[in-house]
């Protein structure tokens, strides 16, 4: 198996046809077809379905595509690590952000990276936390912002902030609590809109409920922040979340938030990298910048509900 075969395969999948991939790669289409056939023979599996409309990945092809992407990224990172300067880091860095963090961190970080490191190409990927974990393990991400349930045996982690969970519902909703705060038992009595199990804050809430002898039921599971906001605004239920992804709606008065009491819950946000794949100078520089931007956001109160964890 050769690196060029991996590049050819990824290009074919990305462009959806052999002919378009051949044009982009500047390779004759018969040669591209030959390399693809050799790759499928070596793997003993068909990777693509071919038709007049183009190509689609088979199940085996989808699995191989993820590995091929990770291998090509690690090769590019290894090349960059050898050639780039520690004083002027350059090259590509891919950072993964959970949906619920990107609203607070993504734009300030992009601005800071462009100002401090113009020769670094920073690519941000927004995913649910479970997907980010797998992508960081495989090497498709250089860095990822994850929560305190990240598998520590695989990652080196730097703590960033703690975010308090709050009870949030539509302003004026019948679900709004009468007092200045709400207990966990009161919160769990309401119909809750939460991420699916093992995603985001859900494990934290499930664990707290078990410790308190409570049951989490009557849950609407939504993994998309945008759809969750729409459901809250439609008064389909309340949620238990940090306020950062909802701060625009809270500031406008469309949503209202109350602190969670008895007990309060907070999640720890960490910056993670793989223990097995060394960071390039560029990735290390972006990692330091994430910490710096986080400190600035907390000092300014821009990252609402977040408490900086001392370095």
From TrEMBL:
<dbReference type="Pfam" id="PF00126">
    <property type="entry name" value="HTH_1"/>
</dbReference>
<dbReference type="Pfam" id="PF03466">
    <property type="entry name" value="LysR_substrate"/>
</dbReference>
<comment type="similarity">
    <text>Belongs to the LysR transcriptional regulatory family.</text>
</comment>
<keyword id="KW-0804">Transcription</keyword>
<dbReference type="GO" id="GO:2000142">
    <property type="term" value="P:regulation of DNA-templated transcription initiation"/>
</dbReference>
<dbReference type="InterPro" id="IPR000847">
    <property type="entry name" value="LysR_HTH_N"/>
</dbReference>
<dbReference type="GO" id="GO:0003677">
    <property type="term" value="F:DNA binding"/>
</dbReference>
<dbReference type="InterPro" id="IPR036390">
    <property type="entry name" value="WH_DNA-bd_sf"/>
</dbReference>
<dbReference type="InterPro" id="IPR005119">
    <property type="entry name" value="LysR_subst-bd"/>
</dbReference>
<protein>
    <submittedName>
        <fullName>LysR family transcriptional regulator</fullName>
    </submittedName>
</protein>
<dbReference type="InterPro" id="IPR036388">
    <property type="entry name" value="WH-like_DNA-bd_sf"/>
</dbReference>
<keyword id="KW-0238">DNA-binding</keyword>
<feature type="domain" description="HTH lysR-type">
    <location>
        <begin position="1"/>
        <end position="58"/>
    </location>
</feature>
<dbReference type="GO" id="GO:0003700">
    <property type="term" value="F:DNA-binding transcription factor activity"/>
</dbReference>
<keyword id="KW-0805">Transcription regulation</keyword>
<keyword id="KW-0010">Activator</keyword>
């Amino acid at each position: 198996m050769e690196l060029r075969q991996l590049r050819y395969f990824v290009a074919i999948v990305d462009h959806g046809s052999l002919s378009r991939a051949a044009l982009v790669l500047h390779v004759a289409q018969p040669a591209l077809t030959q390399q693809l056939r050799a790759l499928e023979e070596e793997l003993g599996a068909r990777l693509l379905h071919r038709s007049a409309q183009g190509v689609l990945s088979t199940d085996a092809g989808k699995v191989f595509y993820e590995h091929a992407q990770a291998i090509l990224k690690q090769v590019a990172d290894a090349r960059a690590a050898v050639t780039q300067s520690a004083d002027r880091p350059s090259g590509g860095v891919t950072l993964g952000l959970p949906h619920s963090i990107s609203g607070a961190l993504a734009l300030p970080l992009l601005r800071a990276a462009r100002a401090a490191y113009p020769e670094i190409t920073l690519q941000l990927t927004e995913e649910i936390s479970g997907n980010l974990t797998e992508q960081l393990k495989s090497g498709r991400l250089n860095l990822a912002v994850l929560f305190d349930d990240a598998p520590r045996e695989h990652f080196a982690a730097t703590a960033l902030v703690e975010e308090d969970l709050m009870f949030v519902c539509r302003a004026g909703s019948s679900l709004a609590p009468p007092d200045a705060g709400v207990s966990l038992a009161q919160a769990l009595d309401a119909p809750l809109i939460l991420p699916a199990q093992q995603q985001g804050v859900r494990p934290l809430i499930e664990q707290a409920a078990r410790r308190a002898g409570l049951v989490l039921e009557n849950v609407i599971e939504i993994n998309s922040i945008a759809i969750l906001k729409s459901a809250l605004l439609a008064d389909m239920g309340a949620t238990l979340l940090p306020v950062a992804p909802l701060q625009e709606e809270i500031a406008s008065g469309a949503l209202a938030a109350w602190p969670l009491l008895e007990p309060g819950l907070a999640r720890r946000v960490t910056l993670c990298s793989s223990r097995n794949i060394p960071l390039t100078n560029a990735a290390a520089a972006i990692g330091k910048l994430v910490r710096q931007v986080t400190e600035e956001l907390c000092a300014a109160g821009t990252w609402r509900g977040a408490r900086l964890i001392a370095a």
